[in-house]
Predict the 3D structure of the following.
Amino acid sequence: QVQLVESGGGVVEPGGSLLLSCAASGFIFTSKWMYWVRQTPGKAFEWVSAISSSGDQVLYADFVKGRFTVSRDNAKSTTYLRMDNLKPEDSGLYFCNVRLRDTDYWGQGTQVIVSS
């Protein structure tokens, strides 16, 4: 079955960095766009970033442009989100997401806390 497993979250000071990973299985990873979404305290889900199946197209929400970098390693069926210059408002639960035949799949999320 489809599985998405996020990791790499943690507690970091403002201005710090984290590298999130999402290991995927149960579908043809190389054929699918992958997405990062977050749920911040008191807010609904926010789309953060997307990467095409080959990795040659990347998209970012305005609030992370210039600070976050999405990438993927198709040989490892893994997508990454490098987060630099983190701000307290980036705190939240980060999920990776894939859509297969009109169904969205999510991992369990990885918690990011940005605090001094």
Observations:
- The chain is about 0% helix and 55% strand.
- The two ends are 40 Å apart (CA to CA).
